[in-house]
Write a structure and sequence with these properties.
With 310 residues, the protein is α/β, with parallel strands linked by helices. It is 33% helix and 15% strand. The protein has helices at 11-16, 21-25, 44-47, 66-70, 90-95, 108-124, 126-134, 158-169, 193-199, 219-222, 242-250, 290-308, and strands at 5-8, 30-32, 54-59, 77-80, 99-102, 150-154, 173-177, 202-205, 230-233, 256-259, 279-281. α6 crosses α8 (158-169). It is elongated and about 65 Å long. This is Hydroxyacid dehydrogenase. Pfam families: 2-Hacid_dh (PF00389), 2-Hacid_dh_C (PF02826). Belongs to the D-isomer specific 2-hydroxyacid dehydrogenase family.
Length: 310
Amino acid sequence: MSVPLILVTCRQMQIELPRHRDRIEELGYEVLVPDLGGRQQFSAAELLEYGDRLVGIIAGDDELDRTFFDGTPNLKTVIRWGIGMDSVDHEAARERGVTVRNTPGVFGQEVADAAFGYILNLVRGYIAVDAAVRRGEWPKFEGVTLAGAQLGIVGYGAIGREIAKRAKGFDMDVVAHDPFIDAAQSDVPIVELEKLLATSRFIVLACPLTPQTLRLVNAERLALVRPDAFLVNVARGPVVVEKDLIDALKHGRLAGAALDVFEVEPLPIDSELRTLPNVVLGAHNGSNTREGVVRASATAVDFLIEELIR
C-alpha cells in the first residue's frame, strides 16, 4: 500500500517546511512540495494528479473547488495557510467530510503595517519623490497631515483592530464598519458603510471576501466618497469593482488609491491601473514578513497535525 501523502503548495510554507517536515513524517506521511514555477497557485486539475494518495494539504491560493474535493476521496483536511478562504468550496468540503481551517490572527500586525505604508506613500508621495531625486530633480511634494483626519476601516477583525491602533498613534479619528461587531463593545465607533464612505478622508478595506463583500465597493458606493479621499485595499481584490474604481480615479471623484490586491492576480499587463499616477500598486504581499511567515507556518503545521491524529 502506498504511503499517504501530504501536499505543501503554499510558497511561504514551502520555505519554512524544513523546520517542520519531521513532525509530519514521524506520523507516517510522505510530504511532497510541488514546484509552483513562479506562479501563485495550482489549479484543481494539477492537484488531482495526487488523487487517491492525498490525505492533507497546506494550501495557498490554490483552486480548491468541487472538482478537487470530488477527486480526492481520502482527503481528511485542508489547512489554508494565511487568512483568506475564498478559494475553497466549503460546501463541497462539508459534503466530503473534509475539515477546512485557516490560520486566523497571525497577520494582524503585518497587514496593518502595510496599510499604513500605503497611506504614507499616497499622501507624502515617497515613491514619486524617490524617482525624481534619482533623475536629478528636487521636488517639493505637498502632502496631507494625518493627525485629525478620519480613517474608516471596513472590516473590524484582527487586522482592522491593528489598523485602528496605528491610526490612533497618528492622532487620527477612527470609525469602522462591521456587521458582526457589537457597537457597544467596540473601542471605536461602528457606523453604517454609507456613512463611513461619505465622511472618511482615508478608507481602508480589511474585510474577508464573502458573498456579502464581493464587489462591495462599486460605482454606487464610490459616488458617496469625498473627492479628496484615499482608498486602501489590503483585503481581497474582488471586494472592489476595478473598472468603477478606475473611472473614479480618472475623473477626480477619488484622490488616490493603494491596492495590495486585485480582481485578477498577478495584475494583467494591460490593466489601466498601471497607467494612473494617483495609484500605488502592490503585489498581494501585505502579510509577508519573516516573523509573520514563521508564525503562520508553525500554526498551519500544528493545525494539520491536530486534524491528522483525530
